[in-house]
Amino acid sequence: MSSTLATPPHRAAPRHPVDQVLPPGRLAIYGFQHVLAFYAGAVIVPILLANSIGLDAQQLIHLINADLFTCGIASIIQSIGFWKVGVRLPLLQGVTFTAVSPMIAIGLSAGGGTDGLLAIYGAVIVAGLVTFLVAPFFSRLIRFFPPVVTGSVITIIGIALLPVAAADAVGGAGPTLDPASGRNLAYAMGTLALIVIVQRVFRGFMATVAVLVGLVVGTLVAWALGDAHFDQVGGSAWVGVTTPFAFGWPKFGVAAIISMVVVMLITAVETTGDVFATGEIVQKRITQDDIGRALRADGLATVIGGVFNSFPYTCFAENVGLVRLTRVKSRYVVATAGAIMILIGLIPKAGAIVQGVPHPVLGGAALAMFATVAVVGFQTLSKVDFHDHRNVVIVSTAVGLAVFVTVQPDVSKAVPGWAQIIFGSGITLGSITAIVLNIVFHHLGSGRGPAVAGRPGDSVRLDEVNRMEKDEFVHTFGAIYQGPSSFIENAWERRPFSDTNDLRRAFQQALFSSSTEEESQLIAAYPDLGSDAVAAGTTGLASQTEQASLGLTHLRDAEHDELGELTTTYRDRFGFPLVLSVRDRASFDQVVTEGRDRLENSPAQEHATALVEISRIAGHRFDDLLAGADPIGTARTRGY
């Protein structure tokens, strides 16, 4: 009797968590949570726009419902996808804040009201088409949008929107504006304070809906005191469908279209960042094709927005954070949230309730949100190499011009009509300035890069560093580490360096990628703290400068003896000197206290701690080289 081996049944590869379809109940709960986290940000754009260009209450209600309806469609397109449209990740789509100020400028230049709205829709539709068409090629353009550009633009957006929030906080534009009203101030500051308290006291989901809590509680208080009115709710229908071109046929203006195309290019950079961030959260590799699909979805959603009486769309970063927070990775959760928003968008009474939010309450919430946008810009700018004076010029000029036209909007009247759209918006002018200056400084002609070592007038530039032979490189940067030159040589192997931050990272990587034996030789080369050799300068100028910064080269006899006893005990116990970055300590007493605490550690832990301290010392020495080469630029980048 022969036996045969049974062939195991074929098993399908397990689905990635992104593609898993959860049970209906969980889909509904998680989807509604996304809607709650998203809702305040979704409805605030039509409210701000309507208040600024003079639309009436019924028109605002229509805008709110159209916005929610189109948000739902856009989110389903992005998360579910079809053909080459939609990135198929849990990304919710919403109206971009980047477009608020340019849309207000477009609307006001066209006379405000419905005419202004039609001019906005014309620009939105064309910008959406352009985005859809350029999506496959955007990865080639992204080099024109480095952090110095995107950081400037995001900072400008936050700064330029703050006056809009401030106007709402004091009663809103028009006859309701009353900066002297204590009641308005109380509503605005109370709403802002509540948002801050919720974010301080709560964690998790409650912290993500702090703005929504502030809006709801602030509105309820105003209603109880007779300052919030919902007269429009009773007259609004339970069901209503937003129809294409409900306000009329769009108007197409060249300047308005250019302005909105710039906005979409900027939001394309933001979308790219959100896609990569989401891919990292859900552990799915992002390819160039994924970016193209995401941007096509942005473009298509923006065209649909222009047709269905809404605005430009992009991925909402707030909900990216919610995916990280909840660890629910299924894209069908976001698709469910989209379906919920479509349903809400078909209920005009929901829009009428939102329309009843008092201006000061909205202004208080907007102050928090728009200032947060500016902070995101600051974070992006922290990645910029400001030792390169070109970047200082780009950011300062772009931000300066943006604030100029934001504070003095009538300056647009001094330029021809075709340029008034650009000069009428701080975001548009600042964005174009940052993009153009980045091209001029970094892409046209040949630059020598920032000064990284030497003295003013006789400094070493970055391109010269990239051409250096090993011996010259070691001679120039040898003082960054004490003792053996192998670490500097390893850094040299990592050429070419794109900027000073890249050069700094090369020294750090050289340190932490070395062998244990090399690390031990390096640690042993550092002098004892407060030693006579350091004070005499025989251990090198760098060590003398560091220890002199805390007075360790001029200690009183008692302090000298106390520190000498500590360093001797430490060396006897571990076999190497006590290494400590004194520039990161506030006093002699702190140095002694930390040294004594470290005596209780294991040799392995102290070996690792010494390397961290050496890295800190090297960072300060690198900064000294930069300061010596470019003292003016360093003064601009260092805090005092």
Please explain how this structure is put together.
- With about 650 residues, this protein is an all-alpha fold.
- It folds into two domains: about 20-235 and about 250-440, no CATH class; about 450-635, Orthogonal Bundle (UraD-like).
- Helix content is about 65%, strand content about 0%.
- It is built from 30 helices and four strands.
- The protein has a two-stranded antiparallel sheet. A two-stranded antiparallel sheet has the order 3-4.
- The longest helix is centred in the first third of the chain and has 30 residues, at about 25-55.
Characteristic key phrases:
single chain; 640 residues; mainly alpha; UraD-like; 2 domains; 4 strands; disordered N terminus; disordered C terminus
Strand content: under 5%
Provide the low-confidence segments as ranges: 1-7, 631-640
Oligomeric description of these chains: single chain
Question: What does the main sheet amount to?
Answer: 2 strands, antiparallel
Helix proportion range: 55-70%
Count of alpha and pi helical runs: 30
For the termini, the CA-CA separation is 90 Å
Q: What is the C-alpha radius of gyration, as a whole number of Å?
A: 30 Å
Rounded mean pLDDT score: 81
- The number of domains: 2
**Gross morphology:** elongated
If strands are numbered along the chain, what order do they take across the biggest sheet?
1-2
Structural class: mainly alpha
What is the number of E strands?
A: 4
